[in-house]
């Protein structure tokens, strides 16, 4: 069963930005694209082990919504979590929804 | 078995030979002893004149550390060869040593020829060939006094320019009816004389130098010319041609060429199979070559024989030349004088703007044989490789400025594109496709083309294009424009947001390349705080939190310490803040203090303490002005001649916060000892007795480069104005992540062009540049203070949105040497992007 956890109001996530959140002790990066789509992926950069993904630049590569790690700039798909520069690496992804103006994340148990 | 090679002469060619041999002789089959009559290791004689224009002997040196410490090479400075014993196979040096050889290379170069006119040996007579010659001329030069150069060839004009740089009023005496008689024809010579006279040189053509006249003190007091004219002067420089240094030929029993030089065959061999001659002292099949490129080919020919890897003959030489003398372009190539049978000439002369061009064509006007260009040599790069080829376009089209006339496709594969380094079109295109090169720098690195005189660089660009390499300056997949084009679009349209810009001029949603680039442009053009509204999401890693991200996700804090000057009270505050927040403390290479290991949520509290104590952002995180490093200057230093600290502080405060294509660093030294290392900075200022010298385009980092002189002896105000113009011009026109050195290098015309723009106002924009800088200075506010006053911005400095004070579980520290240190995480080596994107420092 998935339980949705409210994380923050939508206004706390500016368009084309990310914020870090703690979901059951897991660091998660929540993103809102410039077209107001929401995504949630793991916050820990698999290349360096630091919790920094939410601070990356949001954009697109060939239409695919992406975030670039601020550390060494590898680009990840926000949809699948896959690293577009190195298919061996990926970020976990989390279901995310907007519920009564609150961003909610489901933690798969 | 190791054999011994003795090389006599450590000039440009001797050096190239040894370098080339050592590069290819991995097995170390040769040990080399080099005798150098001069007290210096080989230096760039071609660039000798720049020794009077800001370059030092060290700048000109060709011998790098690797060479000087090579155990297989013994270099004897200030030591000449006195004699050669061919039977014993030994060279006796002037120190009395005897050196046995298995092979001997003569690379003794030439000496200036001093015509035997009466008085030619009086004190005050000089030649122009070595660093010592130039030192002597510099000592003797007196400002505003006339100086006389005997000889109006290429070197004579260089010598005249040297006198001009030393403040003298040069006269040039040339026996032939025109200047540069070897390179240019009558018409070209006339245009050249006119251009040169406009620069203040007095030209006397078609007259002989009758005598050098002594004054009562016994030194030179004047020169009398064949037409009776007398010029009063204390300084005479002879530049009437050179003679090969071949004195060793006769006693050794080696033959000389008809006009001197060691006579060698087309493999550079003398009659003794163990002795070769290369460079200016070699008479290859009887002919001597006075340029460096043929010397380099000879060196290669000999190295191949020494290593037994080939026996190709000397390929002959392209005697084409292009130079900028006194700011005047002169080029001649191929059969410049139309001496081939039936040659036709097409001449375009424009005396109004001082340009002259002549093409020499075959008798049926179909094949280009040579040409002369004066005043504007833009077409040289395209024309020279076409010599001996069918004309690809009507002659008048070929004379249009470089690139517009012919495209690279018109050239056959074996056409030599870079004559300095003998690189053909095929060599270049093969390298481009084989090594997947994408830019001119890559081509230079791979083929050596373009690394000497630089005149072939426009063709290299064309060839990249021909190979299908998009040298388009498109920023990324979202913008087809270059950074400088986007800058102009934003400036002209007043667009103030990324969303607006990408909608009207780009596509998609942007990425980590275009967003920070646009953010920087918006910031330069004054669009409020860099974390305002949507701008926050555009900023690169470090700008995003106004601090430098470290490998474990913490941040470093670097407050500005202008000029490196800091009060004890402020030092104490830094210490207290570091202790209170448990930060690692280190003095940086930029004369300030870095506090490392701050959690993102601690940054506001740390900065509140710092701002209250009078600190402000040091922009260590931004592509912006970093530090203006300073020496202690004349307040304290016994050598100082100006107040370098005050000037450094003034400049740092003036340009702080200026967003630029890459980081900008500066330095100010109080005297020529240069303790602030100003010449390794993007702009460097060095004090003189009369004011300040300004240098631009230096950096350390991956490819260290010394800054080049832009202007000398400036007063404070002029100095600041020139830096204003220089920086604004850089900010507007450079590419993303292009530091000033690379920007100047990529500029058509290089530093000369830059000088024309910022000093002579050749584009008519200096007023605009100064106004833009004034606007920047007036609009400056401290970015950190701006954050502390704004709750919306402060709200982003949290570890987690839903748990703002919970510490990030990925961060932990150990201890080392009494301070914290990040718990080691192994970072993968360079990122998947080929290029270093990370900003700081
Ligand atoms: C702190 C400091 C080292 C130190 O402890 O002394 C430093 C630290 C870093 N430098 Fe530096 N550089 C520091 C002085 C220098 C200097 C020396 C100087 O400025 O006199 C140089 C060579 C001079 C030059 O830049 O021309 C220098 C050349 C570089 C380069 C190469 C730049 C180039 O053009 O090749 C990089 C990489 C880049 O910018 O792309 C770099 C990048 C970095 C980065 C950002 C590396 C990174 O990716 O994290 C480091 C971040 C520091 C931080 O997080 O605070 N750092 N760095 C120095 C800070 C100076 C300051 O007060 O602002
Ligand atoms: C001001 C100036 C500008 C120039 N501009 C250009 C240009 O734009 N393009 C171009 O192609 N060329 C140019 N040249 C010419 C170029 O410098 C020479 O062609 C080149 O230096 C020749 O190299 P080399 O090794 O043969 O001779 P050199 O560089 O003259 O070296 C010979 C060395 O051998 C030493 N030597 C002589 N006899 C002995 C001995 N018995 N024992 C030990 N050592 C000895 C000499 O002292 C000297 O150091 C210029 C020259 C000058 C002076
Ligand atoms: S550069 Fe000159 S003035 Fe400055 S500290 Fe060094 S010696 Fe003194
Ligand atoms: S022609 Fe001189 S560097 Fe290429």
UniProtKB/TrEMBL annotation, chain A:
PROSITE patterns: NIRD, RIESKE. Transmembrane segments: none annotated. It comes from the Bacteria. One of its GO terms (molecular function) is nitrite reductase [NAD(P)H] activity. NCBIfam families: nirD_assim_sml. Residues 4-105 form the Rieske domain. GO terms for biological process: nitrate assimilation. The keyword Iron-sulfur applies. It comes from Saccharopolyspora montiporae. Keywords: 2Fe-2S, Iron, Iron-sulfur, Metal-binding, Nitrate assimilation, Oxidoreductase. This is Nitrite reductase small subunit NirD. It holds the Pfam family Rieske_2.
From TrEMBL, chain B:
Its EC number is 1.8.7.1. GO terms for biological process: energy derivation by oxidation of organic compounds; nitrate assimilation. Residues 622-760 form the Nitrite/sulphite reductase 4Fe-4S domain. InterPro entries: BFD-like_2Fe2S-bd_dom (IPR007419), BFD-like_2Fe2S-bd_dom_sf (IPR041854), FAD/NAD-bd_sf (IPR036188), FAD/NAD-binding_dom (IPR023753), FAD/NAD-linked_Rdtase_dimer_sf (IPR016156), NasD-like (IPR052034), NiRdtase/SiRdtase_haem-b_fer (IPR005117), Nit/Sulf_reduc_fer-like_dom_sf (IPR036136). Residues 5-285 form the FAD/NAD(P)-binding domain. Residues 812-841 are annotated as: Disordered. It comes from the Bacteria. [4Fe-4S] cluster binds at residues 631, 637, 671, 675. Residues 550-611 form the Nitrite/Sulfite reductase ferredoxin-like domain. Belongs to the nitrite and sulfite reductase 4Fe-4S domain family. This is assimilatory sulfite reductase (ferredoxin). The gene is nirB.
């Amino acid at each position: 069963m998935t339980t949705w956890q409210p994380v923050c109001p939508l206004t706390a996530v500016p368009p084309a930005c990310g914020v870090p959140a703690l979901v059951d002790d897991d660091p998660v990066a929540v993103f809102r694209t410039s077209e107001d789509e929401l995504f949630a992926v793991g916050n820990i950069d698999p290349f360096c082990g630091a919790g920094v993904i939410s601070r990356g630049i949001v954009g697109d590569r060939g239409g695919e919504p992406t975030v670039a790690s601020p550390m060494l700039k590898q680009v990840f798909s926000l949809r699948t979590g896959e690293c577009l520069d190195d298919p061996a690496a990926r970020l976990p992804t989390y279901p995310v929804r907007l519920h009564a103006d609150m961003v909610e994340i489901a933690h798969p148990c | 078995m190791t054999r011994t090679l003795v090389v006599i002469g450590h000039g440009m060619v001797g050096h190239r030979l040894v370098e080339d041999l050592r590069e290819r002789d991995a097995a170390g089959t040769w040990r080399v002893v080099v005798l150098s009559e001069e007290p210096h290791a080989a230096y760039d004689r071609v660039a000798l004149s720049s020794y009077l224009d800001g370059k030092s002997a060290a700048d000109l040196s060709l011998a790098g550390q690797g060479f000087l410490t090579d155990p297989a090479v013994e270099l004897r400075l200030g030591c000449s060869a006195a004699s050669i014993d061919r039977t014993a196979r030994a060279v006796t040096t002037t120190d009395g040593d005897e050196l046995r050889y298995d092979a001997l290379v003569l690379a003794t170069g030439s000496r200036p020829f001093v015509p035997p006119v009466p008085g030619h040996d009086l004190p005050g007579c000089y030649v122009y060939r070595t660093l010592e010659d130039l030192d002597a001329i510099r000592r003797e030069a007196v400002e505003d006094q006339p100086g006389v150069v005997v000889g109006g060839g290429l070197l004579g004009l260089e010598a005249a320019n040297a006198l001009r740089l030393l403040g003298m009023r040069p006269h040039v005496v040339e026996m032939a009816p025109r200047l540069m008689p070897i390179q240019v024809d009558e018409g070209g010579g006339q245009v050249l004389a006119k251009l040169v006279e406009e620069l203040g040189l007095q030209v006397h053509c078609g007259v002989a130098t009758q005598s050098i006249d002594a004054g009562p003190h016994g030194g030179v007091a004047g020169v009398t010319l064949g037409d009776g004219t007398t010029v009063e002067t204390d300084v005479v420089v002879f530049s009437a041609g050179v003679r090969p240094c071949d004195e060793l030929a006769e006693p050794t029993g080696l033959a000389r060429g008809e006009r001197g030089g060691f006579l060698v065959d087309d493999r550079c061999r003398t009659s003794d199979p163990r002795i070769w001659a290369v460079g200016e002292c070699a008479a290859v099949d009887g002919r001597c070559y006075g340029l460096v490129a043929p010397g380099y080919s000879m060196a290669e020919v000999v190295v191949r024989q020494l290593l037994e890897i080939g026996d190709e003959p000397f390929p002959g030489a392209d005697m084409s030349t292009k130079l900028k003398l006194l700011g005047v372009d002169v080029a001649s190539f191929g059969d410049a004088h139309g001496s081939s049978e039936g040659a036709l000439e097409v001449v375009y002369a424009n005396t109004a703007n001082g340009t002259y061009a002549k093409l020499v064509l075959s008798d049926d006007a179909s094949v280009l044989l040579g040409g002369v260009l004066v005043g504007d040599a833009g077409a040289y790069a395209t024309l020279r490789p076409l010599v001996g080829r069918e004309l690809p376009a009507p002659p008048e089209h070929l004379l249009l400025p470089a690139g517009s006339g012919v495209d690279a496709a018109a050239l056959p594969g074996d056409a030599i594109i870079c004559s300095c380094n003998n690189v053909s079109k095929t060599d270049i295109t093969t390298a481009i496709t084989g090594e997947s090169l994408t830019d001119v720098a890559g081509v230079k690195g791979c083929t050596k083309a373009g690394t000497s005189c630089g005149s072939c660089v426009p063709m290299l660009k064309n060839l990249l294009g021909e190979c299908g390499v998009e040298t388009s300056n498109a920023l990324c997949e979202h913008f087809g424009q270059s950074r400088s084009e986007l800058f102009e679009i934003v400036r002209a349209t007043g667009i103030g947001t990324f969303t607006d810009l990408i909608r009207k001029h780009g596509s998609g949603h942007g990425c980590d390349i275009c967003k920070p680039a646009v953010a920087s442009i918006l910031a330069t053009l004054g669009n409020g705080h860099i974390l305002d509204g949507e701008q926050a999401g555009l900023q690169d890693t470090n700008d995003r939190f106004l601090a430098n991200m470290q490998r474990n996700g913490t941040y470093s804090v670097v407050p500005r310490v202008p000029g490196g000057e800091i009060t004890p009270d402020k030092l104490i505050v830094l210490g207290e803040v570091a202790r209170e927040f448990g930060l690692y403390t280190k003095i940086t290479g930029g004369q300030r203090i870095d506090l490392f290991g701050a959690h993102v949520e601690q940054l506001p509290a740390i900065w509140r303490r710092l701002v209250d104590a009078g600190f402000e952002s040091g922009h260590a995180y931004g592509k912006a002005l970093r530090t203006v490093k300073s020496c202690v200057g004349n307040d304290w230093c016994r050598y100082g001649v100006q107040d370098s600290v005050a000037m450094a502080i003034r400049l740092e405060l003036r340009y702080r916060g200026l967003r630029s294509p890459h980081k900008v660093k500066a330095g100010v030294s109080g005297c020529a000892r240069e303790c602030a290392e100003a010449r390794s900075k993007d702009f460097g200022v060095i004090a003189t007795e009369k004011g300040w010298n300004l240098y631009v385009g230096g950096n350390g980092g991956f490819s260290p480069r010394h800054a080049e002189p832009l202007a000398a002896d400036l007063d404070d105000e002029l100095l600041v104005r020139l830096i204003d113009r220089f920086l604004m011009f850089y900010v507007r026109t450079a590419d993303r992540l292009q530091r000033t050195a690379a920007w100047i290098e990529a500029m058509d015309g290089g530093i000369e062009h830059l000088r024309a723009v910022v000093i002579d106002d050749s584009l008519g924009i200096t007023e605009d540049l100064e106004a833009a800088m004034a606007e920047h200075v007036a609009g400056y506010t401290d970015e950190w203070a701006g954050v502390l006053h704004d709750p919306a911005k402060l709200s982003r400095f949290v570890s987690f949105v839903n748990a703002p004070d919970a510490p990030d579980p990925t961060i932990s520290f150990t201890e080392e040497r009494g301070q914290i240190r990040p718990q080691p995480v192994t970072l993968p080596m360079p990122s998947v992007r080929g290029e270093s994107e990370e900003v700081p420092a």
